[in-house]
Amino acid sequence: PDEFEKLASGFLxxxxxxxxxxxxxxxxxxxxAVLTFVMVIFLLFFFFKDGREMARALxxxxxxxxxxxxxxxxxxxxxLAAIFRGSLLCALAQGLTGGIGWWIAGLPSPALAxxxxxxxxxxxxxxxxxxxxxxxxxxxxxxxxGSAIFLLAWGVVVASFLADNILRPMLxxxxxxxxxxxxxxxxxxxxx
Length: 192
Known about the structure:
- There is one protein chain.
- The chain has helices at about 1-60, 65-105, 110-120, 130-140, 145-175, 180-190.
- The mean pLDDT is about 85.
- The protein contains 6 helices and no strands.
- By secondary structure, the chain is mainly α.
């Protein structure tokens, strides 16, 4: 009992130090997330309220004539619309292919899983894996190893890699005449 008490005391001391360090990081992370959210809401209010005037003032600073400013404005609007439209179409394709993989793997509610994958594919981190990875883990735990491996491979290759790295740039580039550099910056620039 004495040795067990010493071991337990040492373990609890180490555990309390780890918990203290993790809880501090957790509190700071939560504070950062709340502060970022409040800042985004605050800035969005002014962008929606005075956005056109801000854009006009920004374009007036460009060292070119009015026709040049209009060309730049039209190009920027076209690029943003193409990125938005391409991202939405890619999300729909990821949801559809993810739902098909879910159905082939034999899991219930493939339409719901596909809809969830379409929504989660718009997130910069995690994406469709937030849905298909737990499905593959469930299949593995249920003893359906072949289906689990299939869903994992399908999710990584079809629903994630092909859609994000091949389909999305094609959709963005196909909706407007944009250079490859602009497409690359538009797709991957916001990730940081």
